[in-house]
């Protein structure tokens, strides 16, 4: 893929929505390519995050502990929250077949955010929007729980 195509793939990811094209192109250009073989871990839950991974080709399973929660295919961005805060990964991701990724390190993300403050601000705004959305979902669940007499009432 070209830098332009990779930057447009990044733009499709919610945290990079509406971000400056130049900042996304720099992120795409500076991201390190990393390949994983079938069965190889891309991300290990609980391990300190060093990077997020944009899936360029292949497929990976995504698990929360031992529970499979989805499949990551080209265009998926794994570990973005951990990348931003350099905290532990919240998921496991394992290559099902050979996977090629663009690895965006925490250091690269911070450098681009420092050099393009509007980029960093937009990412923070997008993360805030995502958090607000999750909080509204949780509030709906809280209301349902408060109204129910027992768990059978929830179905």
Summarize the structure.
The chain has helices spanning 3-11, 21-30, 80-85, 106-115, 117-147, and strands at 32-36, 41-43, 51-57, 60-64, 67-72, 77-78, 92-95, 99-105. It has 155 residues and is α+β, with helices and mostly antiparallel strands.
How would you portray this structure in words?
The structure is a single chain. The chain is α+β, with helices and mostly antiparallel strands and 155 residues long. It has one domain (3-154): Jelly Rolls (Sandwich), CATH 2.60.120.10. Helix content is 43%, strand content 25%. It has 5 helices and 8 strands. The chain has helices spanning 3-11, 21-30, 80-85, 106-115, 117-147; strands at residues 32-36, 41-43, 51-57, 60-64, 67-72, 77-78, 92-95, 99-105. The chain has a 4-stranded antiparallel β-sheet. A 4-stranded antiparallel β-sheet has the order 2-7-4-5, with no helix packed on it. Strand 4 and strand 5 form a beta hairpin. Helix 1 (3-11) crosses helix 2 (21-30) and helix 4 (106-115) packs across helix 5. The model has no long low-confidence stretch (mean pLDDT 90).
